[in-house]
Amino acid sequence: MSIVLHPSFPPGFLWGGATAANQFEGAYLEGGKGLSVQDVTPQGVLQPRTPAPTPDNLKLQGIDFYHRYAEDIALLAEMGFKVFRFSIAWSRVFPRGDEAEPNEEGLAFYDRVLDELEKHGIEPLVTISHYETPLHLAQTYNGWTNRRLIDFYEHYARTLFERYGKRVRYWLTFNEINSLAFHPFTSGGINTPKEELSNQDLYQAMHHELVASAVATKAAREVSPSIRIGCMILAAPFYPLTSDPRDVWAAKQAERESYAFGDVHVRGAYPGYFLRRLREAGVNLKITDQDRRLLADNTVDFISFSYYMSMCATATQEVKPGPGNLLGGVPNPTLEASQWGWQVDPIGLRITLNDYWDRWGKPLFIVENGLGARDVLVTGPDGQPTVEDDYRIAYLNDHLVQVAEAIADGVEVMGYTSWGCIDLVSASTAQMSKRYGFIYVDRHDDGSGTLARYRKKSFSWYRELIASNGATLRP
């Protein structure tokens, strides 16, 4: 396979990092904020929720970005960030989710965040709903199974556009919208236990989210024509475990589970293969004529996605799913894995970029990618605490080389925001010890720590990479 000898990224490429309100803001009841579904999931998305917030839920305090945002944004600016992806906590703006009037204290907080970003010349990339459904909507309406959430979400999104539309150009409607099928409470605020949830209710909730995404896209363009709206997908290519055609077909079917969400966002209608799958599952979606018009008339400007791993699929062998695979699938015997079982596959990112570009022909934005690892704080050459995270540098370098390859292939890539650019609480495990950042935060799984920030070795590496627009990558 050819290798780009001198990685080339286009002028204006948006280098930066990504976060989520529920994983780093903290201050979970300050400033008039209400409870969200995250406030009752102390063990991460893979574990049952609790009736109320518990002291062991690290997300309740996060890393205290709510009070330290100016300090943290200054560190991002020191790295030369062009863009910063963050989410707005729905329950900070509408504490219950169904109020007529927003919470001014919540809106004012994000005004202050945007002030700091503007001061440092950093472009904001805002996720409207990042696993942040207000708990009231989950408990009262059963989350997105209820069509009424479309109106609540439209009111929320329009409030954001009217408040920040002249300050924020790039918006994402839902984080990893296809994750609803795997984590219905986290992703869709669905209060029914997953094992009791019917396919009818699950996919009806999916439809409601897709319509809401289209409604928000329509609202954004009405408020400010300069706004650019993207969808956001959890991307994970599936490879056939063997060359047996049945395994090839199994891999294609698995990938289509994610493709369908992009197809609706970009093409404005459900693809035939997905409708067949619903029919065979006994699902009869309630779709109105207005729904169809909204989906068709309000397609997105760009496609964003997270990429952490690839998986294999098989219909011919009995193989257990991998322990860390987010979308099922079985381990690839040719790949190594992270400390949490996530298989490392840089070439899979080039494959994903090419597949998405060939399929949809719209600009692509990599808004999550990174390595979760157990970092160890040591004393650096300058006498300051640091982390010698060469493993993270190697991971990011290898993935970004493949992004350069995809760009050389002709793929239009808008930007790259490394996940968890500052250490935050893991969504999947609710741990601090699963660290992704360029900045070490002194907080631990037992809640102890000073919350002091320290630059890791990767901090300087990323700063040099951004300054060179990718030229310092090592093929």
Can you offer a commentary on this structure?
The structure is a single chain. The protein is of the alpha/beta class and 475 residues long. Helices cover 37% and strands 13% of the residues. It has helices at 21-24, 65-78, 90-93, 104-119, 135-141, 148-164, 184-188, 199-223, 245-267, 272-280, 289-297, 346-360, 390-408, 457-467; strands spanning 14-18, 83-87, 123-129, 170-174, 228-235, 238-240, 302-307, 311-313, 364-368, 378-379, 385-386, 413-419, 439-441, 453-455. The strands form 4 sheets. Strands 1-2-3-4-5-7-9-12 form an 8-stranded parallel β-barrel, surrounded by 5 helices. It has a two-stranded parallel sheet with strand order 6-8. 52% of the residues are buried.
List the topology elements.
Blueprint (H helix, E strand, L loop, with lengths): L13 E5 L2 H4 L40 H14 L4 E5 L2 H4 L10 H16 L3 E7 L5 H7 L6 H17 L5 E5 L9 H5 L10 H25 L4 E8 L2 E3 L4 H23 L4 H9 L8 H9 L4 E6 L3 E3 L32 H15 L3 E5 L9 E2 L5 E2 L3 H19 L4 E7 L19 E3 L11 E3 L1 H11 L8
Parallel strand pairs: 1-2, 1-12, 2-3, 3-4, 4-5, 5-7, 6-8, 7-9, 9-12
Antiparallel strand pairs: 10-11, 13-14
Helix pairs in contact: 2-4, 6-8, 8-11, 12-13
